[in-house]
Amino acid sequence: MAASIRSSCSRGFSVYWTFFFSGSKCRIPVVDVRESAWSAVSWRRYKSGSEERSTHFGFETVSEEEKAERVYQVFESVAQKYDVMNDAMSLGVHRLWKDALLHVMNPSPGTRLLDTAGGTGDISFRFLEYVRSQEARRAWRAAPSHQTPSWQQISASYQTGRLGTGDGALAVVCDINKQMLKVGRQRAVDLGFSTGLSWVVGNAEELPFDDDSFDIYSIAFGIRNVTHIEQALQEAHRVLKPGGRFLCLEFSRVSNPLLSRLYDTYSFQLIPVLGEVIAGDWKSYQYLVESIRRFPDQEEFKALIEDAGFYKVQFHNLTGGVVAIHSGFKL
């Protein structure tokens, strides 16, 4: 695996699994997810000697340590029904939003992607499919016009790995929640993704990777759940290579007053009900709705990204600002 990975444990010890991935030897840290949450929040407080600080969990005010624990519990609770609920809540539109993110990303063969808070793998799967399609188009253009490959040849190319991730494209899915990663790994098996993909337990606020390791950092519908957004952005900047790109897909602020009222009514009155009916969990989806309203708007989030050291930061709205894609570069 081209991107080196370091232990995120902060209590003075490192534990690794060594295994072979995509033909190369690599080491993945074995880090308990609750240990990662502890090191990102409590350990920092212990080192600084500061008093316990408060933050928000939806519309509630809680301690930072309590938020980390409760967010973990939310996603542990909804993991099995997460993708079904995404379809139900957005009427399937989340798929178009994620496709739009990949269009903006426009990855090329050989790209190294860090998909943070990417538990169930949606972005990484799209990334690998996008790169595969680029390789297929490149092979098609390179072939003489009188030697158009047959469907048998194309099929054989996919089966032997000459298309897809043959030139080293890699997606690393990093998530703090083991249950989400478990669901994602099973989805990868079901969808036939056997190469170009790795799964790592890690906290967005203290990523277990070396500096300058990735070409693209993506985070979709995850950064609003982070306790310290500024620190997560600084970590994104650290692990990106010079010239690397930061991309975030997140719920944002609707500017149209009529659409905003309709959106609020739908969010607060229907989404928790769907959560109860489909996932048996009203409270988790109530929190997710509230967390959207507490997240900075487009301009405020853009300023946070710039403060983290990114350049050429811009955003564009989707569905009237229900979600936005923010982009920036590490120079």
From TrEMBL:
EC number in record: 2.1.1.201
UniProt: S-adenosyl-L-methionine binding residues: 120, 175, 203-204
Domain of life: Eukaryota
Subcellular locations according to the entry: Mitochondrion inner membrane
Example GO molecular function: 2-methoxy-6-polyprenyl-1,4-benzoquinol methyltransferase activity
Catalytic activity reported: a 2-methoxy-6-(all-trans-polyprenyl)benzene-1,4-diol + S-adenosyl-L-methionine = a 5-methoxy-2-methyl-3-(all-trans-polyprenyl)benzene-1,4-diol + S-adenosyl-L-homocysteine + H(+)
Pfam families found in the cross-reference section: Ubie_methyltran
Bilayer disposition of the protein: Peripheral membrane protein
Stored Gene3D superfamilies: Vaccinia Virus protein VP39
Family of the protein in this entry: Belongs to the class I-like SAM-binding methyltransferase superfamily. MenG/UbiE family.
Entry protein name: 2-methoxy-6-polyprenyl-1,4-benzoquinol methylase, mitochondrial
Organism of provenance: Lepisosteus oculatus (Spotted gar)
Classification of source organism: Eukaryota, Metazoa, Chordata, Craniata, Vertebrata
Gene label: COQ5
